[in-house]
Amino acid sequence: xxxxxxxxxxxxxxxxxxxxxxxxxxxxxxxxxxxxxxxxxxxxxxxxxxxxxxxxxxxxxxxxxxxxxxxxxxxxxxxxxxxxxxxxxxxxxxxxxxxxxxxxxxxxxxxxxxxxxxxxxxxxxxxxxxxxxxxxxxxxxxxxxxxxxxxxxxxxxxxxxxxxxxxxxxxxxxxxxxxxxxxxxxxxxxxxxxxxxxxxxxxxxxxxxxxxxxxxxxxx
Length: 220
What we know:
Elements (H helix, E strand, L loop, with lengths): L1 E6 L5 E7 L2 E8 L5 H16 L8 E5 L5 H18 L3 E4 L1 H6 L8 E7 L5 E3 L2 E4 L2 E4 L4 E3 L1 H6 L5 E4 L1 H14 L3 E3 L9 H13 L19
Parallel strand pairs: 1-4, 4-5, 6-11, 11-12
Antiparallel strand pairs: 1-2, 2-3, 6-7, 7-10, 8-9
């Protein structure tokens, strides 16, 4: 199944074409360029690189949040337009799950954190069970200090919130806080596509017009 994955939940962004979970082409940018500037041209580029015609796309997966309000709107509106024009399913996936999926199977808690501004972060807790990544908390909008109070065992942190709050996490949690190279802080379009493909194959796809950004906080 040929899937287009679109990730625009933060200032970084990524798009990918996958087929049966194999990455055919992927483009990731992390230069704070507006998603409205690069997104369509990047999709065209990966289609050319993958030697895939746009009409061959069988499904689209979009990272629906939580994340930056404007960034999410750009990605979701683009994905909706393409899905409607091509008459193909659109699968929304959690941006926090996308980040957590950067980590391969292990027994340690995983906590992706995304900057929510106003000295808050979006976060959730994940862990592998039976070789599958499971979310075992609700999606949170929370202060870094309140999140720290929830940590009782070694936890891997990743996401752009890690860059902002790494020092306080390290200071308060010591060896319980585990950090990876910054490349793991970037959400990948290929992971969006893979997560969405699973939903499409299982028939867990909502009506196109019901798909909205997951903000957790009301836009101003």
